[in-house]
Amino acid sequence: MPDDNPPPDYDMAGMFQKALGRESSHCEACGKVVDGKDIRDFNVLLLDDNVFTVENHVVLCRDCEERDDWKEAVRKKRAAEQPQPPTSLRGKLRNFPDSVRDYVTDPTARFLFARRLGVLTILLIGVLLLIPPIAAVVGALFVSPNTGMEWFDQAITTITTVSNTPRNTLAWAFTGLFGLIYFAHVAERERNDPTGWAGEWNPPKWYTLAVYSAIGLYGAVTLILVAVGSAPMGRQFGARIFWFIGSVGIAYQIKDALRLDLVRMVWKPRRELWEFPARYGFVLALTAFAVGPPASLPTFTTPLLAALTPAISTAYIIARLPHDRVFRDKCIAAQDRLLELLRIRDNDDN
Predict the structure, then answer these.
(1) Cβ(165)–Cβ(128) below 8 Å
(2) Percent of residues, the chain, with pLDDT higher than 70
(3) For the segment 162-190, what is each residue's pLDDT rounded down to a tens digit?
(4) Do the beta carbons of residue 36 and residue 25 sit within 8 Å?
(5) Strand 42-46 to strand 57-61: parallel, antiparallel, or no bridges (unpaired)?
(6) Residue 53 carries which DSSP code?
(7) Which ranges of the chain would DSSP assign to H, the alpha helix?
(8) Residue among 316, 323, 199, 226 nearest 267 (CA)
């Protein structure tokens, strides 16, 4: 039986049935047939801790359950059952499209977002490089050779014009594209990758998140005060340092805080609706600091964007507190202790 900390929506009975069906009610360590209708004949354990996918559930007979090396036996069996990649050049070429698709779309792979962003960048560059020769070939084949050359020159001129676009416009265009890709990535990753659930021994992550939020919020508020003239300009550099430290900490910590709250069933937030704005707000502010706000917006937009990440993090902390029974009990205990100390002091005074 899984003895880890499953996510709140974990269906143990359903997972057991799926694992038994996948293995045709055979022990994965020795191959012995187990009776899927009698729980006394088998058990289902996790191959990797805190990973609650169907593939990570292992069907074991009662004898193999007691073996110290059952994980090694299961991994060896699964490795042997995996289809071997082709070794011939023709086989590798035939398998190349599938390899590329798996590389780009595997939802549980590490660095998935970086790979997708890299592939998209390569595709965009490739399309830009291919436009002139494609225009030349189409014009030469369907109109005339001279037309093909004219279209080639026009395509080169258009690409050159795009490359001369102001830095501010290009930076915000890429930031917007980055945001679309990242939101799609976060939504898909949180649906398909249940790994990383923290155990009960982990300290509350929101404590650290609250510290980073206070640091980032102090920096952002100071930047706003400088922008409106209520604080001296000399504080701007220090405020940016505070904002940067706090925002980096928030971007790093908020994912762990969300997952720990879910595994402890404090509440059920939509992870992408908190994680995405907290992290993407940091990217927006960095872009504003580097190239200024978008051309149509005033310079005051920059400190407002800086306040986005710490504001989202602070809102998350406030939203979770009414659901946190442990924190509420500690507050009540602290209040009772304070009242007791006040009564003792009053008695001493009398």
Answers:
(1) no
(2) 85
(3) 667 787 888 898 899 888 888 887 877 76
(4) yes
(5) antiparallel
(6) S
(7) 12-22, 62-65, 70-81, 89-105, 112-142, 145-163, 167-192, 205-227, 235-263, 271-291, 301-306, 308-320, 325-349
(8) 323
